[in-house]
Amino acid sequence: MALDTTDGSIEYYIDIETGKIYFFIYGEDISEYTGITLDNIKNNPDRYIYIEPIPSHEKYRMMEDFIESIKDKAAKEFLENALQMRKPFRNFKDALFDYPKIREQWFQYEKDRMEQITKEWLKDKDIDAEFI
Known about the structure:
- By secondary structure, the chain is mainly α.
- It has helices at residues 31-34, 38-42, 56-68, 73-84, 88-96, 100-124; strands at residues 10-15, 21-25, 48-51.
- The protein contains six helices and three strands.
- The mean pLDDT is 90.
């Protein structure tokens, strides 16, 4: 979720000692819930690593790659057109409602790709993690 966030007002950090992920919403003090402040995190860069969201062009590419895998020509063309419109992310998700089976395939595809991206990110940061 942290890698996939599109809300620029939220920052995520991972505590490499505990594996906990903390999020901070600009303008809100949530330290009473988390037990830690953003200042604590920023003052301990060896312990807390900022989780930078995936750039939108990479998520767009993910949708393009998925569309390439679709066998149904009508569905493929419909989804390709959705990406060409204004607000392609919203249009893509809306277009999937017309194809429930392909929509379920998309959810699995997206889940698998996000897991792969997460594992690569953890490896790049030298963080050992077990997926459960």
